[in-house]
Structures are given as C-alpha cells and as structure tokens.
Amino acid sequence: MKKDFRLSDIPKHNVHRVPDGYFDRLPMQIMERTAQRGHIATAPWLAKLWQPLRYAVAPLLLLLLFVGAYLFSMQQAPQQQILTVATLSDEEIMNYLSTYAQMETADLEEYLATDQSLPSDFLNVSAMTAEEELQYYQLDDLDY
To answer: What is the pTM of this model?
Structure first.
C-alpha cells in the first residue's frame, strides 16, 4: 500500500517558464495577424459593390427560376386540338365506333345495309305521327 498523500508535501515551484516580454508583445502580434487576414479576404471596393447588388440578385434569380420552370412546363404539355363531330368524316366515326364502342361487325353491316333511318327505328315513331307533330309546331314560321 501507498502512504497517505498530502498536498502540503508537494514542493511549490513553477515547472513552466514564460519567455521574457511574452505578454508585452502578445496584443501587438494578435492585432497584426487579424489585420492581415482582413485585407486578404475582402477588398473594400468589392464590399461596396456587393451591398446594393445582393438585393437585386435574389429577385432576379427567383424570376429566372420561375421563367425556366414555366418554359419547361410549356414544352412538356402537348397542345390539344379541339375536335367536333361535324369535322370528322364518316370513316373516322366508323373507325372510332369499331374500336371503342365494341360493336360487332354484324351490327355495322346491318347499319350500313339499312336506309340510314335509324332515328325512327329507335323512337318507334310512325311516319304519320311524325308528320302530325311537325304540322302542330308550324315549323315554317320559325327563324333558323
């Protein structure tokens, strides 16, 4: 075992030695080093130029970003053509119906073989009833 340790038994002398005049020269050395860094990092004319420009650069960058995004989206979106049924030919209508209406060829052949009087067939209206309705409304007086 070790014997008891007492602080009073430790000799009191400084083991570290400070060079002569160190603390007298220290503030000047610090000021010289910080002054040198300040001159190298920024030039005064650059700082004066950048202050007003930084307020103008940020909105310009945002504007360029929005314009670029708008133009990019305009190139991506295909322009849709507005079509009406009146502009389509009979062949295009028949192609559409055969593709999307899932009609059988027998139905199409039956339609083409008829005298194209399908509305009266669907409505179950006789020719005499249709003439009576037309006379009742007096279509000759209407302005088209």
So the answer is: 0.27
